[in-house]
């Protein structure tokens, strides 16, 4: 049966009802947002509102940037933007619950919601949209929804363990969003299998132009993505480093795109994607003292890495491993994200009090000594500082790499399991054929198609009349 199907409708309405019930039981406004808040909370409310401009940038990235970036498929534009819209709307609600579970306990019986919660929910949605890019055109709305629900829960657990147990830093979420989302999606795609060649798996002049709109929105707003969760000087460094890294990756992406083309022309796929790689690559170290030249160097290398991935690595993965990656998320998010994790480990190794002062402990809490006069001195600069395990720079760098490795393993394993679930769902529903891959007509009413069918019917009718005459 063509169309989204009754099961999709029931799943959407059923899960939305479940979200409402769970929110009724568990979710409440934070005290700073409550109508009966004490005037003493006004300062906190003002601080929270400072997040709004960056939250709005990230919101634009999720719903416009990612959505339009995926419109490059010439007959899948409705689905690219529409399913991006739908999946994001589901995930941001589910993410508030999943991310907030860690708030429960220790006398806290509800999940408090602030603007920071909404920002975190949007960032969680980004991981799911990255995974969607790997399977774009090959999955139904119901499959995407199930994938997003599972991925969000796993994402929340992985990030909680990394931040609270391993105590690593990842300011721009390059490890926990980009690496996790990319390799989760690639594992799903691997299990679903490589589709047969389709003439519709390609772009047109107009579809590439629409995709470029998404790229530009992402490029402009990316500094907010990397620094929205930061404060003070760290936030300013996050914006500066991301800005410069993006600019550098844009330049090298254009240059290497020409060098990799026998005709010495720009490739629009490279320009749509590799120009953004600098934002991914600087993410983990966005708040650290990489210095402007370091940010530009990281961005330059990321642009080169991404173009090489699109031009040479992706075709080999498809030919040798049957790994089909519709949007090339391995090249924009996967490899640059791993690069970001390595850069983060290097910066953790180089970090010391000469460069950071007592802010070193704000960036790397595990490096706070367990006790002693140094802790007392640091607490004079930061009253919230607590004694910790007193890691060395080498130990912190190793923990950064450990978090990267764990994230990769968790993403691949849980992605493969999710892919098996989606494949089973497709088999049971009888929708295992590929005739509607990369084609909007399976799920959308398309007026031009109806007009073409009417015209064909009219022409056939006229031909019959002529033959009778």
How would you describe what is shown here?
By secondary structure, the chain is an all-alpha fold. Helix content is 70%, strand content 1%. It has a two-stranded parallel ribbon with strand order 1-2. α3 runs antiparallel to α4 (77-100) and α9 (232-259) crosses α12 (291-321). It starts with 5 loop residues before the first helix and ends with a helix. The model has no long low-confidence stretch (mean pLDDT 91).
SSE arrangement:
Elements: H1 6-26, E1 27-29, H2 42-49, H3 52-69, H4 77-100, E2 111-113, H5 115-134, H6 141-165, H7 174-192, H8 205-227, H9 232-259, H10 268-273, H11 277-281, H12 291-321, H13 329-350, H14 353-356, H15 360-363, H16 373-381, H17 393-429, H18 447-468
Parallel strand pairs: 1-2
Give the radius of gyration.
24 Å
Strand order of the largest sheet: 1-2
| Distance between the first and last residues' Cα | 39 Å
Which CATH class applies here?
Answer: Mainly Alpha
Q: What are the segments in which pLDDT stays under 50 over at least 5 consecutive residues? A: none
Approximate helicity band: 55-70%
Rounded mean pLDDT is 91
Q: How many structural domains does the protein architecture include?
A: 1
Order of helices and strands: HEHHHEHHHHHHHHHHHHHH
GO molecular function: ammonium channel activity
Pfam families: Ammonium_transp
Main location: membrane
Membrane topology: Multi-pass membrane protein
